[in-house]
């Protein structure tokens, strides 16, 4: 099932994030008050809307309640970020993510309901896009073709060991290490049965990332 994601704010970070999410197969709504940027994204998103994100009525009109994830990418506009986060949470969006430009802004956005804070000093839009996909917990590019990622155990893996799963054949990936949530990494024992708390560190080709939407 495709993720429905709203990216609010089309600065450099928001554009990179939105375009990558769309290329990964998500349904992406973008919004910004800059009409030129909105026109540019008409073919790089599912829906592109021109809106003043500091205006409550215009944010309400975006109908964010249908989104799985809302991301506010206005790191330099605290008023717009607060408005978008507050409206998204009031409309029942399961995951509201906010870009921040300072510790104080992070604190304020958490208080108004942001579930996760993204710091552009630490991670670019492309990396964030992969982390926000449904089962990637972290992601690092090694080159143009290869990457390492943290992934959650799929439901179909539960109760089977790595020999039975044969993930290299089924998913074209190699398991580097595994751990329980909150635990420490260790080399994977191929005979241990997978449980729902397992997290895997895997190496794969970037072309296979779409399997983890």
Tell me what you see in this structure.
The protein has a 6-stranded parallel beta sheet with strand order 3-2-1-4-5-6, sandwiched between helices. It has a 4-stranded antiparallel beta sheet with strand order 7-8-10-9. The longest helix is centred in the middle third of the chain and has 13 residues. α1 crosses α6. It is built from 8 helices and 10 strands. The N and C termini lie close together (8 Å). With 213 residues, it is of the alpha/beta class. β4, α4 and β5 form a beta-alpha-beta unit. Helix content is 29%, strand content 26%.
Summarize this structure as a short list of keywords or feature phrases:
213 residues, alpha/beta, 4-stranded antiparallel sheet, 8 helices, elongated
Adjacency order of strands in the biggest sheet: 3-2-1-4-5-6
- Euclidean distance between termini CA atoms: 8 Å
Low-confidence stretches: none
Fraction in helix? 25-40%
Radius of gyration: 19 Å
**How much beta, percentage-wise?**
25-35%
Structural shape: elongated
Q: Give the helix tally.
A: 8
- Major β-sheet, in short? 6 strands, parallel
Indicate the mean pLDDT: 86
Structural class label: alpha/beta
Question: Count the strands?
Answer: 10
Question: Order of helices and strands, N to C?
Answer: EHEHEHEHEHEHEEHHEE
């Amino acid at each position: 099932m495709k993720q429905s994601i709203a990216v609010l704010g089309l600065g450099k970070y928001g554009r990179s994030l939105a375009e990558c999410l769309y290329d990964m197969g998500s349904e992406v709504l973008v919004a910004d008050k800059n009409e030129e940027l909105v026109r540019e994204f008409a073919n790089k998103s599912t829906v592109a809307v021109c809106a003043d994100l500091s205006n409550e009525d215009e944010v309400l009109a975006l109908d964010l309640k249908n989104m799985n994830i809302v991301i506010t990418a206005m790191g330099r506009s605290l008023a717009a970020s607060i408005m978008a986060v507050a409206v998204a949470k009031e409309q029942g969006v399961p995951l509201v993510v906010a870009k921040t430009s300072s510790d104080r802004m992070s604190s304020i956005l958490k208080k108004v309901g942001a579930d996760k804070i993204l710091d552009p000093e630490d991670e670019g839009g492309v990396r964030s896009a992969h982390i926000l996909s449904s089962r990637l917990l972290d992601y690092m590019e090694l080159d143009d073709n290869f990457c390492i990622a943290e992934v959650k155990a799929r439901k179909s893996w539960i109760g089977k060991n790595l020999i039975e799963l044969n993930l290299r054949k089924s998913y074209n990936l190699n398991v580097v290490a595994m751990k329980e949530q909150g635990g420490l990494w260790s080399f994977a024992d191929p005979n241990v049965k997978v449980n729902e708390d397992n997290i895997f560190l895997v190496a794969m080709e970037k072309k296979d990332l779409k399997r983890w939407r």
